[in-house]
Amino acid sequence: MVGWLLALVAVLTSSVHQVDATAHSTTDPASVWVVVNKTHPLPAGFRPELAIVRGYQVARPAARPLERLLGAGARFGFKIASAYRSYAYQEHVHAATVAARGQQAADRLSARPGHSEHQTGLAVDLVTPGDPGCDFDPCFARTPAGRWLATHAAAYGFVVRYQPGTTAITGYRPEPWHLRYVGRALALELRRTGVRTLEEFFDVPGGDYPTPR
Ligand SMILES: [Zn+2]
What pLDDT digit, counting tens, does each position of 177-194 carry? Predict the structure, then answer.
């Protein structure tokens, strides 16, 4: 009897924690689950509803959760280095990088316009000015701040979007400083299931740009 009850409880709890993968759109640019990658660009004209967090523009749904995350990690002294970036701004950055370094290097260093998650306003890059040695470097993952984010960001609805070993899937190299807001339910579900990318969870293609310029 006890065994049967435990089994029933296990089934009920697992179904309670399951996330309905169709609850939000993955193609609507304003959806918190939108998948943006090198094969799924955003429209040039898309601009999210914005709010201000510590002087930076972020999409409205991500603003309060970001404030809570930054508050909870206050001892690391996180600073936002980049949040919402407009299509025009990304176009400018990418064109300048192409001019300076060539197309191939530019594609490694910055997203083409429309292909950056930052245009959704749901992505932020965090740095730690008090301990800046690993800012924007893969070694950020091994710092106390980077480890804390990897463990605790999900509780605030954020995921580390570009993790080691997922470049072929996401199209981007590991960026342990780049957080993407997806909401707490999905962030915790990804952690529970061990699925590391939105592409795999939603079965959406990713990878590199389909055609070189
Ligand atoms: Zn970023």
Answer: 999 999 999 999 999 999
Q: Domain containing 95: what range?
A: 27-202
Indicate whether 16 belongs to any domain.
Answer: no
For the chain, the average pLDDT equals 93
Contact assessment for residue 153 and residue 159, using Cβ atoms and an 8 Å cutoff: yes
Q: Is residue 7 part of a domain?
A: no
What is the CA(1)–ligand 1 centre distance, in A?
52
CATH of the domain at 111: 3.30.1380.10
HSE value, Cβ hemisphere, 13 Å, CA-based, for 65 = 25
Q: From ligand 1's centre to the CA of 128, what distance in Å?
A: 15
- Residues with a beta carbon under 5 angstroms from ion ligand 1: 125, 178
Q: How many domains does the chain have?
A: 1
Q: Is the pLDDT of residue 62 over 70?
A: yes
Position 101 scores a pLDDT of 96
Gap from CA of 124 to ligand 1 centroid (Å): 6
Domain membership of residue 212 (yes or no) is no
Count Cβ neighbours within 10 Å for each residue of 119-139 and write b for 16 or more, e otherwise: bbbbbbbbbbeeeeebbeeee
- Domain contains 198: yes
Q: Which of 2-11, 28-37, 132-141, 177-186 has the lowest mean pLDDT?
A: 2-11
